[in-house]
Amino acid sequence: MPPPAVRDITKGRRGGYSPIVPTNRKPRVTIDHVARATGVSRQTVSRAINNKTEIDPETRQRILDAARAMGYRPSRFARGLVRQDVITIGLVIADVLNPFFPEVTAGVLQAAERRGWQVVVYNTGSEYRKELEVIDMLFDQVDVGVAFLFHNDAIAKAAGANLPFILLDTGGRAPALPGVRIDFESGTRQGLEYLISRGHRRIAMLDDEMYLSSEAPNTRRELYLKVMDERGITVDAGWIQPAHNSVEGGAAAMERLLAAHRDVTAVFAYNDMIAIGAQLRARKLGLRVPEDCAFLGFDGLSVGELVEPPLTTLHIDKRRLGEVAVEQAALLLGGTDEGEIPEAVIEPQLIVRAST
Amino acid sequence: MPPPAVRDITKGRRGGYSPIVPTNRKPRVTIDHVARATGVSRQTVSRAINNKTEIDPETRQRILDAARAMGYRPSRFARGLVRQDVITIGLVIADVLNPFFPEVTAGVLQAAERRGWQVVVYNTGSEYRKELEVIDMLFDQVDVGVAFLFHNDAIAKAAGANLPFILLDTGGRAPALPGVRIDFESGTRQGLEYLISRGHRRIAMLDDEMYLSSEAPNTRRELYLKVMDERGITVDAGWIQPAHNSVEGGAAAMERLLAAHRDVTAVFAYNDMIAIGAQLRARKLGLRVPEDCAFLGFDGLSVGELVEPPLTTLHIDKRRLGEVAVEQAALLLGGTDEGEIPEAVIEPQLIVRAST
DNA sequence: AACGTCTCCGTTACCGCTCACGTGAGCGAT
DNA sequence: ATCGCTCACGTGAGCGGTAACGGAGACGTT
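Output (structure tokens, whole complex):
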């Protein structure tokens, strides 16, 4: 196998990227302007601005006043060039609107703030092109990437991009990049065995439809098939319904599922959003939850506590996920080799509520 | 009244801000290193990296290979210094975990992406100190601020900071800064008159407790009092319960409310999170919704559709809010004076669902 | 043969700022 | 008077790139 495709640095500027630069831009007020206006040298202005010593308090005040009046603001580029202490991390998420990601983001922001790091956020919608584009952006704009990447090509590109990179959810792939692994395997097994122990046999899965057109490994589905097989429960195609990753997607998939297998007694959903949509639709169609059909989600979103009945789910500590990823990023920046980064694992935890 | 306090530029470096710079940092590979290694000049390397013309294809490839092998990555600072085309906006939100903000963020990210702008995100929790600190950060790190600011001092500081600044929700304040105004006034009136038209008289309000210890104007509360007064409905203190801005906060406030006024027939909540918590707790305590007590939220979060019964709410187009703010930011950067920025207004829209 | 014209590459000059020094004034000590 | 020290400030270099221009060599033209 050839080594992972290496980012072609030339690609960065090609095509897409061409920021709209406002016109009529006022020319920048520089430190020199302030210096001339106050009759001192650049260095003295710098001392005033940065609150350093070796400057007369009166002079400082004079300079500060002038700077303010002139609308002077130090260039972050010039400053960053000489003081190499501003660290920016690029956080790549799939969908801000899925509550999963804000929780991860909360963890990342918190850990970043503790370190005084900046966080630039990018949203990909898990689109193939967007993921690839974002990696170019990261390459140019940040010191380290922390990303959810769905497509293998994107991961390969990130791996060859010469940029420190941490994967949120390395799940099931060859360890091309360091990152955090969410143990979907143990989670899925835990959840399904719980359902089985409660007497369920006709267990359907509502899968994320994105895997249909992708080579990305789907641990949850694989484990579902495996566990069903182990228990001698046969599942034909109708038992796995692809769903758009949203409440509405879950609802639609549930309808299809019921059309195929009216006798389903339990639904294992790819995640909470899908589970919630499915459960809602099932109830609307007259099924009692959990008596007629039980629902098991994945993620442990807090919204699961608000629906009726509250959703049983495999809880992931998403906030911690974000924090750990930043810690790993810190290791990378600290000079630790990619290979030396210890793999962090997040264990899903079954939270039994009323939907099962 | 004195003019708004002007940001003391010296404050930027004082105290808090001191990013943790990793140790063992590998020294940066610069364009010069690549140039020497390949026996060409910097300029030629630059041509190769940036995919420009006037370079032999073979030379380009040789340089690219070397650059990759050496782990070269152009400095965004050096580049930004000479090419003034990278624009970064600083998005300041109160709480990533409140679904309101991810929706706004989605709008901001989308509008920013269209322009090729970067978005740095900061979370304040609406804490007084954090808000002030964040403004210092913005001053150093971004080209324009787009922010939710709760505290008047923070707004004043932002106004004097010499940094283009857009307020998400300028609501009710002196127009110290341009931004978007969410018309809570008309929204509140709309919602309350709807409740009244449905025969409700004993209408309580679950207010955000943050206003207790703040000078920030509270349009929703003021309008509540005003409308009640107009209708000749008397409200004593017990009818307004402060709640922490969260589901749990809403639940706790609802309990206090019921202790004070068991005969309440409708609850007007500061926002959806509080409304949902209150409704959930009310049902748990045996009240029927809406028969015994109706609930009206504010925000139009999509989670409101998932609870039982679905929440009636005053919907705010949060995504558009974010987009509009970025458009205004673009105007500012384009040279438009603060005063010339047209005020954008977002009108809440009553969405009647089953909780009323 | 002399001249333009490409092609490819190097040189110079910045971009705006900070760091490490250097410098002169003022002042007490010797 | 000389030295040494502190204080307040200036000077030069350089951070890592890119833009603008210049120049050598290869090639075709007249």
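The radius of gyration of chain A is 26 Å.
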